[in-house]
């Protein structure tokens, strides 16, 4: 335990939106003798997830959608490790790095910002066949995977094999699923100009959504427009339909549709980081940390939580729905981080904290190059204007001037010199050539 003259030890679990932005605010406003800040995350960077579909499509360099934690948080101590256990009774967190083993980190103030992971359902074959789009590694993999399937299809005359290779299935019609599908389809459509035996119509793209509409974050009218826009591009949209199984790459849908596919991208929701179950923090029925509107964990002074892993009351909806909590979105995470940092500083200095209250501003989404939808403060747009609003908003939210400029330069170069459609499949298995050489 820190002595009276020692700086308060602030431990932030997670280096995503909430963790990095909270630490960034704290390092700007805390005196060196006032507190020390330690950030723990398995990755040495924060990933700006709204740009992952563009990274997968080649519009943005994957390295430019991540912010290096050590570069951004120069006055913080960054620990590259995964949290394995939280013992608040002892004020100790156990972390583990595969290279260096485990260690215990003590703290005086704890910020829980562990985010979320993909929510998988018990669907036969899903764990073996599926991939999500939540990390820069997955974005890079998907890009090479799609182009690799096109390369393979160009080399075979077997019609069944070609159909399987060129069938791309996406499950989940929220923002993540629609943007990933639209960007990758746009990239693949562009790439067909370099194949003399693959046309856009040879490819089959499908979106499977269990609800009766897509993108619930926008108005119902805009959701209908999105479906029509996708179908006009030849993309099959299955609403009120769920994936029953995908064993061996054979997809079976609840409406009886069956087809073979070598690509299944899963974006059907998220859940709070499961490591929270290995803690003594109060959790709700969905495994999220129970927090007040002040972003303090219920009943635990000195413990704060925000983002996807926290059940924070949504004060903009409590009148119509008293139990409403904030949705897991980047918009909430960034703004909660700002309020959390202010409240934590106020608490340390004996001042009053404030509730997190956020009026919904709206949503923007990209649907490929020069295509998008937007519903912001009642203003609805589609096509080029919405696409421009989407890019403008997200580049403004990207941390650091360095990363903003790199992304803008990527976009400028892509506009001048068109898309890069090169598959670097060796990245998927970088030791393959070495192993073949060793065996020869």
UniProtKB/TrEMBL annotation:
Q: Name one GO molecular function term.
A: NADH dehydrogenase activity
Could you tell me which InterPro entries the record lists for this protein? FAD/NAD-bd_sf (IPR036188), FAD/NAD-binding_dom (IPR023753), NDH-2 (IPR045024)
SUPFAM superfamilies registered for this protein in UniProt: FAD/NAD(P)-binding domain (SSF51905)
- Report the Pfam families cross-referenced here: Pyr_redox_2
The transmembrane segments are none
- Gene3D superfamilies, sorted: 3.50.50.100
EC number(s) stated in the UniProt entry for this protein: 1.6.99.3
Provide the alphabetized UniProt keywords.
Answer: FAD, Flavoprotein, NAD, Oxidoreductase
FAD/NAD(P)-binding domain: residues covered: 9-336
NAD is among the record's keywords? yes
- Homology family: Belongs to the NADH dehydrogenase family.
Q: What is this protein called?
A: NADH dehydrogenase
Origin organism of this chain? Saccharopolyspora phatthalungensis
